[in-house]
Write a structure and sequence with these properties.
Layout (H helix, E strand, L loop, with lengths): L1 H36 L3 H14 L1 H5 L2 E3 L19 E8 L2 E7 L5 E3 L5 E3 L11 E3 L4 E3 L4 E2 L5 H8 L4 E6 L4 E2 L13 E4 L1
Parallel strand pairs: 1-2, 1-6, 6-9, 7-10, 9-11
Antiparallel strand pairs: 2-3, 4-5, 7-8
Length: 191
C-alpha cells in the first residue's frame, strides 16, 4: 500500500505529460491540415521534385520508396518517370510493407483511404532511399505524421537507406513535440 501511495503521484504526472504531448500533436495535426489546404501543393510538389533530382542521395539511389499522395499532400509521382526502381508502402495491421510499383500499375484503396499497390511485398533491405510523408516537420529532422506510427516503426526497424521528408516550408516549425518512439529522418527537404 505504501508503494502505491509513493508511486501514484509519479504515475499520474507521467500520464498527464503524455496526454499533454498527445493533445499538442493532435492540435498540430489539425492546424497543419488546415494550413496546407491553402497552399499551392501542385507548385510546391513540382519544386520539391526538381530539388530532389539535384540531390546526391537521389542521383545515387537505385531503389526508392515513394508514398502515394493523399489530398493536399506532396506529390512525388513525377519521379516515376526517372530510371529507378520504385516502391510504394502497403499497410497491413501495424506493419508497413514495401511493394514494387511502376507507372500504370494497379492500385487499391486501403482502409485509410490511401492508394496502395497490389503487388507482393519485398524486403526493405533493398532500398537506398525512402521518402516519408508528414503533416509538419522541424529543424531537427523530426516529423509529425498522421498518428499511426507506421513510418516510425519502419524507420526504427530498418536503417539501411537514406530517409527524407519532403514538405512545404510553411509546414516546418522550430521544434515539434516528440516521444521516445518518434524517429527522425535523415533530411527534411522543403521549398
Amino acid at each position: 500500500c505504501t508503494y502505491l501511495t509513493l508511486f501514484m503521484p509519479l504515475f499520474y504526472t507521467i500520464c498527464l505529460l503524455y496526454t499533454k504531448i498527445m493533445d499538442k500533436k493532435t492540435d498540430l495535426r489539425i492546424r497543419a491540415k488546415a494550413l496546407r489546404k491553402g497552399l499551392d501543393i501542385s507548385a510546391i510538389s513540382s519544386n520539391i521534385v526538381k530539388e530532389i533530382r539535384k540531390q546526391q542521395y537521389y542521383i545515387n539511389a537505385k531503389n526508392v520508396l515513394l508514398f502515394y499522395p493523399m489530398k493536399y499532400e506532396i506529390d512525388l509521382r513525377d519521379l516515376l518517370n526517372d530510371d529507378k526502381n520504385f516502391y510504394l508502402p502497403k499497410v497491413n495491421q501495424d506493419k508497413l510493407y514495401v511493394c514494387p510499383f511502376k507507372k500504370g500499375d494497379k492500385l487499391e484503396q486501403s482502409d485509410f483511404k490511401v492508394e496502395e499497390p497490389c503487388s507482393n511485398h519485398v524486403s526493405p533491405k533493398i532500398l537506398d532511399l525512402v521518402f516519408v510523408p508528414a503533416l509538419a516537420a522541424d529543424y531537427e529532422n523530426y516529423r509529425l505524421g498522421y498518428g499511426g506510427g507506421y513510418y516510425d516503426r519502419f524507420l526504427a526497424e530498418y536503417n539501411n537507406f537514406v530517409s527524407v521528408t519532403p514538405i512545404a516550408k510553411e509546414l516546418c516549425v522550430e521544434k515539434l513535440p516528440r516521444e521516445s518512439f518518434d524517429i527522425k529522418t535523415d533530411y527534411i527537404l522543403s521549398v
